[in-house]
Design brief:
Length: 250
């Protein structure tokens, strides 16, 4: 190949390389703009009013004391609000769920539940409006076992229990539903130091030591549905025509 031809080929390769490089740079820049950024768009508005990544890490590793308390109604986003593809750290924090501990603190042998006490500490908030929030799952529960949100202390069939929660307006909320069996079981407190019903008596007063319906159908017999008996903390199943207690959740 002549020297001139070699120069022409080299020039073409250089041109192609330059075009590809520019295209990649523009493409990557566009993707970055579209993707946004996982971090907050600005610094926290003020101490304790927005979460940092370190706060979220502490929360997930159960260092509760390191998580700031956000005053109700006092939170404000930073002045540079998130773009359409972004979320604030508060959005992320409010979506986190931790598996709660059972509440059993007595150990009956080495390496049992009471020995390890695995899971996040049971933590609830009394909202002052007849509801209790589980701070590990974010679920809000009707609080009193004999008042609104719990079928007024009476029992109901499975279908009527579902309809009751769907039609309920309580504590200004109208998006109540019957909990699934896993959600209902998570508020059982497996602690022999308390008497039945096995639940936190402070945050769930007047709970009956009997069966409460879940919305979960028994997979082995679809004429039955799962329930939780707070008299012993067991999950069971019974005919959907039976009459049991109701506690709604949102």
């Amino acid at each position: 190949m002549s020297k001139n031809n070699k120069n022409k080929v080299s020039w073409k390769y250089n041109l192609l390389y330059g075009v590809v490089s520019i295209s990649l740079t523009v493409g990557i820049g566009y993707l970055l703009i579209r993707a946004g950024n996982i971090d907050s768009p600005g610094v926290p508005d003020s101490a304790g009013r927005m979460y940092t990544l370190e706060n979220i890490y502490d929360y997930l590793t159960e260092v509760d004391s390191a998580v700031p308390t956000k005053p109700t109604g006092a939170f404000a986003n930073p002045s540079a609000g998130p773009g359409s593809t972004m979320h604030t750290l508060d959005d992320i924090f409010s979506s986190l769920t931790r598996i709660p501990a059972t509440g059993q603190t007595t150990s009956y042998r080495t390496a049992d539940d009471g020995d390890h006490e695995t899971g996040a500490t049971l933590r609830y908030t009394d909202n002052g409006d007849g509801t209790t929030t589980d701070n590990n799952t974010g679920l809000m529960w009707a609080q009193d076992g004999d008042e609104a949100g719990c079928n007024n202390g009476s029992t109901a069939t499975w279908d009527n229990a579902i309809d009751y929660c769907l039609g309920l307006t309580f504590a200004t909320y109208s998006d109540w539903r019957l909990p699934n069996v896993n959600e209902l079981f998570l508020i059982v407190k497996h602690d022999a130091s308390i008497s039945a019903p096995y639940i936190d008596h402070t945050y769930f007063p007047n709970t009956q030591s009997y069966y409460y319906w879940s919305s979960t159908t028994d997979p082995d017999d679809t004429d039955d549905a799962r329930n939780v008996k707070f008299g012993n903390g067991n999950v069971d199943y019974c005919s959907k025509d039976d009459d049991f207690y109701v506690r709604c959740v949102r």
